[in-house]
Design brief:
It is built from 15 helices and four strands. It is mainly alpha-helical. The strands form two sheets. It has a two-stranded antiparallel sheet with strand order 1-4. Strands 2-3 form a two-stranded antiparallel sheet. The chain is globular.
Length: about 325
């Protein structure tokens, strides 16, 4: 990590350095299932400048990227102008991978989970239209995998990483939500799983507008802070509307996933049948993920502990048939 660059390396850096442009970070995890760079990829040198790592369509190996440690980084970057092209190429690769019967379910699960998590991170860090649409693109093959492959779904459930970061929480809720919807609705084609997937994965997008010191506060929130946090529901709907990504499913899930049968939920205090089943599915996934994640205000629970708490306290007002299907995700 502390090695000095040789004279030849220094001159090469000078020759390959790209003038200042807008860049976005991408995860090196996608190199496990892609053979060529989907667009020009860069690393950053010690001066913070972007240096070409691999040109578009050139061969790209994991070993080459592991060499990034020599330069004190583990991050890869692409030009913001290439974001749409990057997204299309990555989506095409994921579609091929998911449809390929010769690839193991565990490999497919790792690929879609890592790529989806990375796309969600960008959407939450920079909720502009291009990055939100990238996330929507990557959600599609993730949903396809859950709907078509039971073994891959089991791997996805096991792969969920529990962390307080909102984008990881949303990725997990998206996976749990789609998996539960598939179990609950079965082969009923009247439920569009892709539109549901977008709603589940982006249900908490409004939290990107909540001050981080409130969102990650270790103690109890003040009444004023609670109102700010509760505002993420309508903020999320506003963001989706601003970028033309609202479907009926996404609207319902985003606006209702914190409603409760007893009327003590928010933002509208809906009761009983006024709460849509899609929102109930999201709420179950949301509560489970919150209980099993490490948070500033509580330690993470095991799956058994979380399900026990949910059954006895948290989801007493939820359709017990729906909750029984959720338990199947961890016992099947």
């Amino acid at each position: 990590m502390g090695n000095k660059l040789s004279a030849s390396e220094a001159s090469m850096e000078l020759a390959e350095t790209i003038p200042t442009e807008e860049f976005f970070a991408v995860s090196a995890d996608f190199l496990d299932f892609i053979e060529k760079a989907p667009c020009d990829l860069f690393r950053r040198n010690r001066s913070g400048e972007y240096v070409l790592l691999a040109a578009r369509h050139s061969a790209l190996s994991r070993q080459a990227v592991m060499g990034l440690e020599h330069y004190g980084t583990d991050q890869i970057y692409a030009r913001t102008d290439d974001s749409a092209y990057y997204s299309r190429m990555l989506r095409a690769r994921l579609d091929d991978l998911v449809a390929n019967p010769n690839i193991e379910a565990s490999v497919k699960a790792r690929a879609v989970q890592a790529t989806c998590r990375d796309a969600m991170r960008r959407a939450f860090d920079d909720p502009r239209g291009p990055f939100i649409r990238q996330a929507c693109d990557i959600i599609v093959p993730t949903v396809d995998l859950i709907v078509s492959d039971d073994q891959a779904t089991k791997h996805l459930v096991r792969l969920t990483a529990f962390d307080q970061a909102t984008y990881i929480h949303s990725t997990n809720v998206g996976i749990f939500g789609v998996a539960l919807a598939r179990l609950f609705f079965g082969l009923d084609r009247s439920h569009d799983m892709h539109k549901l997937g977008t709603g589940f994965f982006l249900h908490d997008l409004g939290k990107c507008r909540i001050p981080i010191d409130i969102l990650n506060k270790p103690g109890a929130l003040t009444p004023e802070e609670r109102l700010v946090v509760n505002g993420h529901v309508e903020e999320g709907y506003t963001i989706l509307s601003e970028h033309g990504i609202v479907t009926d499913e996404a609207r319902t899930i985003t606006l209702q996933h914190h409603e409760k049968d007893n009327g003590q939920g928010y933002p509208r205090g809906r009761v009983g049948s006024d709460i849509h089943p899609y929102a109930r599915i999201c709420r179950i996934a949301d509560i489970y993920e919150a209980l099993t994640a490490e948070r500033p205000y509580h330690k993470r629970r095991s799956t058994f502990e979380a399900l026990k708490i949910m059954k006895e306290y948290e989801v007493a007002d939820v359709d017990q048939g729906l909750f029984a299907e959720f338990i199947r995700l961890f016992t099947a």
